[in-house]
Amino acid sequence: MPQADWLLLLLTPPGGQSGGRIRLWRTLRSLGAAALRDSTYLLPYSSNHEAALAEVADSLQAEGGEAQLLRICSRSASQESGFRTLFERDNDYQEWLHGFEQARREWIQLDPPTRLREYETWRHRLQELVSTDFFPAAAFDNTCATYLAAFRQDCPGHAAPNFETCELDRSPADSEPTPPEPAPAAAAQRPFDPADYQNRVWALPLCSDATILASAWLICRHIDSDAQLIWLADTDTPPSQAVRIGVPGAPFGGEYSAFADLCERFGLDKPLFARLDGLTAAIDSGDLSHPQAAGIVALLAGIRDVRPLTERSRAALQLFDWLADGA
């Protein structure tokens, strides 16, 4: 196995800015970076990756942190193999296939336009996985083939999509450098159209996380005004037609990034949303330095115990309506 180039990013985030650290983590995740240890991230070399990580480093330094971006070369075949192992996506493809096949069993009962929307949601999620699969293997071929075969069967008359793989420049560091290509910190995606997400059932985890409750508010106030919210305990199975948020197999969110993911996917970029994202992310990470944080935490604890769950939804909307009015 030839030894090739890698990019190593060493970070020291500024203190007291949990919201900024979460946004940093989200950017690195979207690029597909692997964590070698705390604040040390690895990506296979490409000019696009170099430009994106340089932007991350510059942004962190502007906020008072420290960053070093190094271009290194694996020193042996075993080290090269070890680095590549960090980017294996077989388990991710298997998880995607399990969710896709489980959901597809219910789609046969849907009308064709709704079924096509479900396919588009799962295609988008698979493309995100493909875009960070830097060393495609059999799992990539099998997963894409499964999707395309099902799409052609269930959506006749519609052109099957293509999946764009990531191209890497794996030349050694002492070779003739190629001019860097401009690239954003995260791959640009066409925003989802809220018109395709009207009168839907939205499934969220039954927890009091600020980002999840803020996501409920964002959905109802800025995406789907007729949304039906349902709250899932850990053992609950969401309805097959539900749009899942921050739960296993969800096309939107995951861990504490659900609110920001929804903003990014639907092109919602008002300053208000950025402020609420930073506030809720900081609260969920335990940072109570914001003047409103302690009061919000107390209100969130109260919302957690609200029953019936329809009243829980109402309470979450009232809380974030109040925060939005005061922002």
Q: pLDDT under 50 segments (min length 5)?
A: 174-189
How much is the average pLDDT? 81
Overall spatial form: flat
Strand content: 5-15%
Counting structural domains, the number is 3
Q: Numbering strands along the chain, what is their spatial order in the largest sheet?
A: 2-3-1-4
Short description:
This protein has helices at 18-31, 47-62, 77-85, 90-107, 112-131, 138-154, 210-223, 258-265, 271-284, 293-304, 309-326, and strands spanning 5-12, 34-37, 40-44, 66-73, 201-205, 228-232, 243-244. With 327 residues, it is of the alpha/beta class. The chain has 3 domains: 5-85, 2-Layer Sandwich (Alpha-Beta Plaits), CATH 3.30.70; 90-154, no CATH class; 194-326, no CATH class.
Q: What does this protein structure show overall?
A:
The protein contains eleven helices and seven strands. It folds into three domains: 81 residues, Alpha-Beta Plaits; 65 residues, no CATH class; 133 residues, no CATH class. Helix 4 runs parallel beside helix 6. It starts with a strand and ends with a helix. It is flat.
Task: Please render the helix and strand layout as text.
Layout: E1 5-12, H1 18-31, E2 34-37, E3 40-44, H2 47-62, E4 66-73, H3 77-85, H4 90-107, H5 112-131, H6 138-154, E5 201-205, H7 210-223, E6 228-232, E7 243-244, H8 258-265, H9 271-284, H10 293-304, H11 309-326
Parallel strand pairs: 5-6, 5-7
Antiparallel strand pairs: 1-3, 1-4, 2-3
